[in-house]
Amino acid sequence: MLTKLPTGIAGLDKITGGGLPHGRTTLIEGESGCGKTVMALQILINSAREQKQPGIFVAFEENANRIKLNAASFGWDIQSLQEDNLFFLDAQPTSDIIQSGSFDLGGMLAGLGALVDKMGAKWIAFDALDIVLSMMPDEAAMRREVYRLHEWLLARELTAIITSKKSANHQPIVPNGSMDFLLFMVDSAILLRHEIVQGVSQRALRMVKYRGSAFDENDAPYLISDNGIELAASFLTDDKFVEVTDERISTGVARLDKMLSGGYHRAASILLTGAPGTAKTTLSGAFAEAACQRDERTLFVSFDSRGPEIVRNLKSVGIDLSSHTKTGMLRLESAGGITGSSEIHLMRITQWADSHNARCLIIDPVSALSKSGNALLAHSVIQRLVDWCKQRGITLLTSSLLDKSGSELVNTPLQISTIADTWIHLDYHSSAGERNRSLSIIKSRGTAHSNQVRELILNTDGVTLADVYSSGGEVLMGTMRLEREQSEQLEKQRATALHDKHNAHANAELLELEQRMSHIQAQVDEKRSEIAESKFTQQQIKNQDKDTQAEIRSKRFADSHHEK
Amino acid sequence: MKSEPLLLRLYISGKAPNSLMAVKNLKVICEAQFPDNYSIEVIDLFEQPYRAIEDGVMITPMLMSSSSPPVSIIGDLSDTEGVINALMTTQQ
Q1: Helix, strand, or coil here: A200?
Q2: CA dist., res. A453 & res. A260, Å (int)
Q3: A298-329 confidence digits (pLDDT tens)
Q4: Any chain A CB within 8 A of the CB of B14?
Q5: Nearest CA to CA, how far is B37 from chain A (Å)?
Q6: H or E segment and range at residue B38
Q7: Do A93 and B11 touch (CB under 8 A)?
Q8: Chain A, nearest residue to B86 by Cα
Q9: Are strands A330-334 and A422-431 parallel, antiparallel or unpaired?
Q10: Across the interface, which of A98, A102, A111 has its CB nearest the CB of B45?
Q11: pTM
Q12: B72 vs A94: CB contact, 8 Å cut-off?
């Protein structure tokens, strides 16, 4: 069964599904300056150190000391590796060597055989095998030596790397025949390519073959960085993304938080688009400040300005970043001066973010990545940046330059609009002799968000949002909005006064009516008591009459009784 | 006047045809050109493989002179004239 040995080059292990074939030979081909030697050396050093698998590096082209120096410049601690772990064999043919008749590599293989046995070597690299092959008189001799080498490797079950130069135009690089047969002999092959597109260096690696294994056949961009070869694919080494949360984090603008029902989602990717001067950087800065205030480590990468300029400019709108840069919570990096492919930018940004342990990442503007010869690559680079951030739970805020008006927004230069979870568009509205900034939320995944356009107001106290008035199909901002606000205020006051007046009037009337009512009531009462009094008097008169008659009767001894 | 003896070292790999041929050719050349005034040390890397590493010998057969600067000739030494010319320069 085919087993694979990890190379320690993260991206390479990913596209090969685990590394190079154990006990077999891998060819690394490419033009000069592609990094063939670096890659072979890196794999051997990694294997010796991480896997404890000793290796031999046979240097046909460069002298071993120079190679060791190069390794040291990549920060690979080659000194800690003993000769038992990694052996460098100087094998450059001397320039004044005289050829006379047939020769072969038998002596070297005999020597290497003894060395392999002594060290227990598992890996061997033949760097620039083309150098020694080019000494052969013809292609048949080259073939013979390559097969000799092949047999020797198989017999010792060594995992081998052969590097060989390849010309760009498929012309043989040596006059005495093609070395294409190398490709047929080996079990796996890696092609390194280095091109200059519009003045920008673009490197890509491609697996050409891998016997007995599936592999990623696509170009994998790579970079020769301070740490050696790094593949773009290494960013997605683990497919584990952090758990999706419903956590909201502040945008730095209170009103915008409200519009987004609480703020941006944690680990979301946010896109701010707009023409130059629409306050993209300001909103980015507001977010950075809010993040730092939450004690979240933040990386702000600017392609436009240097760090101190950003701090100064944002201070004028009430955003204080300097205190956060002092505490180290905020790291400001300027990437504007760095030319290079978008891959290089991506790697640098992710390295910064890693070393800063950033929870929030701001790139202003991300559209800079598609500049100068990077147009084709930029989209995939940004896709990977978004994925990279999501894997780590980093909230990513990017801005993008956009000159077009709202209706043409769907095709942002990088088409990152589809990648963005939240997309906020900033615009200018020019009317009545003023240019006013506006903000609208174009989309926000998983969020009930306001559909309304807001006016964005920058002043020394910070960033605020204001309602805009729409009147006859036109939004009103700035002075026109203020005027409208004032006139509405006046109208309101007038209405209130009118209402108050009306109320007072009615109250007075009511009072009057009530008074009248109580007066009438008094009259009624008076009448009632009058009536009652007169009734009483009458009764008394009646009674008196009765008494008087009775008295008369008794006086006259009347016999008739009319009493009741 | 007799010049300094020619000290030669020939690295070979076992009984490989070109190695055997080199030994034979070298003896013929030396007998003809430097009679009784040469010494050949034959090192078979199959028997002493470590010498390949120590002496930096990648290709066999390989002839090295002890002169300064040393002359290195690779191959079965079948180009007799070339070998003689190279060795003569070390003698001067």
Answers
A1: strand
A2: 13
A3: 999 998 888 899 999 999 988 999 999 999 99
A4: yes
A5: 23
A6: strand B38-44
A7: no
A8: A98
A9: unpaired
A10: A111
A11: 0.67
A12: yes
Q: What is the pLDDT of residues A198-237, one digit of tens each?
A: 777 788 899 999 998 888 888 888 888 778 888 876 555 4
Separation in Å, CA of A78 to nearest CA in chain B:
21
Query: What is the arrangement of strands in the sheet containing B62-65, beginning at the earlier edge strand?
Result: A98-99, B72-74, B62-65, B6-12, B38-44
Residue with tokens 């060290």: A119
Contact list in B for residue A135 (CB cut-off 8 A) is: 59, 74
Q: Does domain A4-231 have CATH number 3.40.50.12500?
A: no
d(CA A130, CA A385): 39
Tell me the ipTM for this assembly: 0.92
What are residue A46's phi and psi, to 5 degrees?
-60, -45
Sorted by where each begins, the domain ranges of chain B are: 6-91
Phi/psi for A260 (5° steps) reads -100, 25
Contact (CB<8Å) A107/B58? yes
Residue B8 Cα, gap to closest chain A Cα (Å)? 15
- The gap between the terminal CA atoms of chain B, to the nearest Å, is 13
Whether B53 sits inside 8 A of A111 (CB atoms) is: yes
Judge whether A30 and A194 are in contact, CB under 8 Å: yes
> Do residue A91 and residue B56 have CB atoms under 8 angstroms apart?
yes
Q: Which CATH number fits domain A248-468: 3.40.50.300, 3.65.10.10, 3.40.50.2020, 3.10.180.10?
A: 3.40.50.300
Residue A182 Cα, gap to closest chain B Cα (Å): 20
Question: What's the pLDDT at A405?
Answer: 45
DSSP secondary structure letters along A70-87: HHHHTT---TTS-TTTEE
CB atoms B62 and A96 under 8 Å: no
Question: To which residue do tokens 């790397």 refer?
Answer: A161
Please state, in angstroms and rounded to a whole number, the distance separating the CA atoms of residues A108 and A120: 17
Do B53 and A101 lie within an 8 Å CB cutoff? no
Residue A434 has pLDDT above 80, yes or no: no
Q: Report how many Cβ contacts below 8 Å link chain A to chain B.
A: 112
Q: Kindly state whether A232 is in contact with chain B, defined as any CB-CB distance less than 8 angstroms.
A: no
Q: Give the fold, CATH level 3, of B6-91.
A: Glutaredoxin (3.40.30)
Q: For A508-528, what is the mean pLDDT?
A: 93
pLDDT band for A180, please (50, 70, 90 cuts).
confident
Query: Hey, is A188 helix, strand or coil?
Result: strand
- The arithmetic mean of pLDDT across residues A149-167, rounded, is 91
Alpha-helix residue ranges (DSSP H) falling in A213-306? 254-259, 280-293
Strands A200-210 and A220-225: antiparallel
| Residue B91 clears pLDDT 60, i.e. is over it | yes
Q: Which of B8, B51, B59, B89 is the best residue to mutate to test the A interface, defined by the most A CB atoms within 10 Å of its own CB?
A: B59
Contact B58 A98 (CB under 8 A): no
Does the pLDDT value for residue A479 go beyond 80?
Answer: no
